[in-house]
Amino acid sequence: MIADVLADAGARMDRAVEAAKEDFATVRTGRANPQMFQKVLVDYYGSPTPLAQLASLNNPEARTLVINPYDKSALKAIEQAIRDMPNLGVNPTNDGTIVRVTMPELTQDRRKEYVKIVRGKGEDAKVQVRNLRRKAKDDLDALKSDVGEDELVRAEKELDAVTRTHVDLIDEALKRKEAELLEV
Question: pTM for this one?
Fold first, then answer.
């Protein structure tokens, strides 16, 4: 029973770390990256649809991204969704068949703003991991009557080690993203 609680907590924490890494990828650096557009939702016939389901994204140059919609009638909606996306700071252009997004050069102030955004996302991810730890601890406490005190203490130490490992993974990803953002 204890092993099940610990395994479940570890798996959930793994997913939280992966979600944090994906979230970090949505913050732009100096290069155009299709991952930055993962969270863009386009109003397609009244329902919010992820951009990746409506178009192919190509990266022909370092700072240019070409979006080729599968349905040409969605061109205006795609363009508007990209324009409305916060933290991108881009102005897409539409030539009737494709949407071209050119990333402007990042200023030092803008880079520092992005670092603050990424740190906030990192802190949110760490809070999520800690919440998962708290839930697992509550689940372990519920088992108090079924298992011995020593087993419970050992399990809590193991849970703390798993939590610390996952928080460290988030910190490492955060440091990599910060270095990537501040690189000129």
Answer: 0.71
